[in-house]
Specification:
alpha/beta, Rossmann fold, 6-stranded mixed β-sheet, 4-stranded antiparallel β-sheet, 9 helices
Length: 273
């Protein structure tokens, strides 16, 4: 199930303009602008509290922005309708966003969470099938066949009837990725997908994300793994203070950042002591 046959990668899939979000008196996002072309793997890096995760949650509709716009062009095969939301009119309220537009926005993306967020009372197979069957209302037999194929792909077909507590962290995160893929999204969102894993379990998850990148999936990845960003991402954006400070080619930007704040951050990350 690869998106590489949809459209040329030069076409913008996601456009974000002037995105703002506050929590009480704390303005987390001041004005975020992003354009993500089809097939792009965008890595968001930056210090804790800079707004990276909030950007992802706004893209998925888990948080309602206070201002700015998010537009996603949809898929050529009409699985997903184009959507554009101007959040200024919503005043930060979910009720202020047209329900159909918010549903379309969420339907565009598959979210992979830092701490897996699997349903503890459901089996692996049930976790994967929940969204496509309950939310997308797709035929159960069709969804089950796709879910089993995806579990086979990541080496977890023998865990289909297991519960999350019976899995390692790396296995749970691979189930989380499979759950996102089962939604047939146009955009994959990853929030620090390896930060909760033991070091020896990180490799399997990073290899799977690298495979998805090679297949042409469009992804936005919040990560602290600079080497992974350099190797897999096609673009990297440094987020600080609720804005995009610098955005460019990973190999060039991580080697020779142009902004002083980016240089300070990279130096502290590479030489923490």
């Amino acid at each position: 199930m690869s998106p590489t046959d949809q459209t040329p990668s030069v076409q913008a899939l996601l456009t974000v303009r002037g995105l703002q979000k506050s929590f009480g008196a704390n303005q987390v996002l001041k004005s975020v602008d992003l354009t993500v072309a089809r097939g792009t793997v965008l890595a968001l890096i930056g210090p804790s509290g800079s707004g990276k995760t909030t950007v992802l949650r706004c893209l998925n509709g888990l948080e309602i922005a206070d201002g700015g716009t998010i537009s996603v062009v949809g898929a050529d095969d009409a699985r997903h309708a184009p959507v554009s939301i101007d959040f200024a009119a919503a005043h930060g309220s979910r009720a202020g966003v047209p329900k159909k537009a918010l549903t379309n926005l969420r339907d565009q993306s598959g979210m992979v969470f830092q701490h897996y967020n699997l349903f503890p009372h459901k089996t692996v197979l049930e976790n994967v099938m929940e969204g496509p069957v309950v939310v997308q209302r797709r035929p159960r037999a069709e969804v089950e066949a796709e879910a089993l194929a995806l579990l086979e792909r990541v080496g977890l077909s023998d865990k289909r009837d297991s519960y999350p507590f019976e899995l390692s962290g790396g296995q749970q995160q691979r189930v989380g990725i499979v759950r996102a893929l089962a939604l047939r999204p146009t955009l994959l969102l990853f929030d620090e997908p390896t930060s909760a894993l033991d070091p020896e379990l990180v490799g399997d998850v990073l290899r799977l994300i690298k495979e998805l990148a090679a297949e042409g999936w469009t992804m936005v990845i919040v990560t602290h793994e600079l080497e992974f960003a350099r190797e897999v991402a096609t673009e990297v954006a440094f987020v600080d203070g609720g804005t995009i400070v610098e955005h460019g080619d990973p190999k060039e930007m991580l080697r020779n950042p142009q902004h002083e704040r980016t240089r300070q951050f990279l130096h502290r990350l590479l030489f923490p002591f």
